[in-house]
Amino acid sequence: MSNYSRRKFLGISAAAAGASLATKTFLLDAPPAWAEQSAGAAERVRFGIIGVGMQGSGLLAQAIELPGIECVAACDLYDGRHTLAREITANSSLPVTRRYQELLANKEIDCIVAAVPDHWHKQVVVDAVNAGKDIYCEKPMSHSPADGIAMVEAARKTGRIVQIGSQRVSSLICKKAKEIIGEGTIGDINLVEGWLGRNDPTGAWQYPPPADLSPENLDWDTWQGTVTKKPFDPRTFARWRCWKEYGTGLAGDLLVHLVSGMMFMLGINEPPREAQSVGGILRWKDGRNMPDVHATVFYYGELPVYMRLNQGCEMAETYRFQGSKGILEVTEFGLSYTPQSGKDTAPSYYDSGYPHAMRMAYEKKWHQENDPKMGQEPMPESISFRGPDYDDMHPHLWTFFQAVKSRSPVTEDAVFGHHAALACHMANESYFRKRAVWWDEAANAIKS
């Protein structure tokens, strides 16, 4: 971390905000936790991966870069990804299978990394922990509130480690933001905004299916799970996020990152009490049934949180925490704090309705009581922190693998993952019901 002192930072935050602010930028330069680690054979963590698609292939490639971490088996329902797993690991004899149960039964496997479609999350996680395996599962944790409840209970009952893959909670940038907020630098937070937008077919999940995909090299029936069966369709396989039967839409793909990051930075570990969504399928009219524009206002206690997502307009991932002492803006690559005094910087313009003599007397008294003394004028500064590299995947995986060895807590356990996913389910339910919804803790259900 930068050695920029907390006292100096807080001193600047207390200064009154002027018409223009100077900006100081500091580098977040903490070395990665695994940079100087090494591991002998006895200390190695051996994992099996379930799902080697777009996300799973990235997880696999980054996991094996960590010291002491080894992939010993891979599972996917599409045979082409068996080849891919062997290519990534540079192991032409890596055991591969279509049946994830074989990985769960393998005593040489310490833990599981899973990146499967949302509608398979619950079954894979529950089966894994019941088989005595710790598991890293991609976000969102669940496909429904009921799935999440079952997953939390399975983790609690078995005592196995579950880490959910919303990597923002392991970002150095989010860690610094949490520190700043926790110190009270921005004062009482009264509104949080977050947004993220894309403006291209790939960003809207119009992924090109593998050219050789067929019922011969893909177990299509198993992939569909308990969903009402439909004929083989390569587009559905590649673009499953477009349909609520398999995915969780923009909420489960993008909102969950914003929500989990916000929860981490604010120290929240609970679902929102209320959600109200608007949106629609406004650009990508390709047969999907999930919105391509989705905006939701949540209440976390009394705090309003406004999150907006768009697949028809590019918007860099951004948070804006608005407080009584200023604004903290957090992006993918850094954060900046702009102080505000919360005080008048001049006599109130309401005095324009006073008679002349009264206005002059009021303004004279105001200046006498409020003007700074010569040489004591405040010099407010906007402070920025920049990250040299926005890498949150490696540290998130590292936390999981170290927990497998040490049994230490993970950054995003099943309870945290469940609460973050509930925000997504509430956003979707509000969209489809066209009304506000709330979480009924006693009934473990979304009500409207």
Keywords:
448 residues, alpha/beta, Dihydrodipicolinate Reductase, domain 2, Rossmann fold, 2 domains, 11-stranded mixed β-sheet, 6-stranded parallel β-sheet, 13 helices, 33% helix, elongated, disordered N terminus
Outline the fold blueprint.
Layout lengths: L5 H9 L7 E6 L17 E6 L3 H10 L5 E7 L4 H10 L6 E2 L2 H6 L5 E4 L6 H10 L3 E5 L6 H14 L3 E4 L6 H11 L6 E9 L22 H5 L9 H5 L10 H18 L7 E7 L12 E8 L2 E8 L4 E9 L2 E6 L2 E6 L16 H15 L10 E6 L6 H14 L7 H20 L3 E4 L4 E3 L1
Parallel strand pairs: 1-15, 2-3, 2-5, 3-4, 5-6, 6-7, 8-11
Antiparallel strand pairs: 8-12, 9-10, 9-16, 10-11, 12-13, 13-14, 14-15, 16-17
Helix pairs in contact: 5-6, 6-13, 7-10, 10-13
Offer a concise description of the structure:
The chain is an alpha/beta fold and 448 residues long.
Query: What gap, in angstroms, lies between the N and C termini?
Result: 45 Å
Instruction: Specify the CATH homologous superfamily of the largest domain.
Output: Dihydrodipicolinate Reductase, domain 2
Number of E-state strands: 17
Shape: elongated
H/E series: HEEHEHEHEHEHEHEHHHEEEEEEHEHHEE
Q: Describe the main β-sheet briefly.
A: 11 strands, mixed
Number of alpha- plus pi-helical segments: 13
Strand order of the largest sheet: 1-15-14-13-12-8-11-10-9-16-17
CATH hierarchy, class of the largest domain: Alpha Beta
Structural class, from helix and strand content?
A: alpha/beta
Give the integer mean of the pLDDT values: 92
Say what the CATH topology of the largest domain is.
Answer: Dihydrodipicolinate Reductase, domain 2
- In total, the number of domains comes to 2
As a percent range, the share of helical residues equals: 25-40%
Q: What ranges have pLDDT less than 50 throughout 5 or more consecutive residues?
A: 1-20
Relative strand content = 15-25%
Rg over CA atoms: 25 Å
User: Can you tell me the CATH architecture of the largest domain?
Assistant: 2-Layer Sandwich
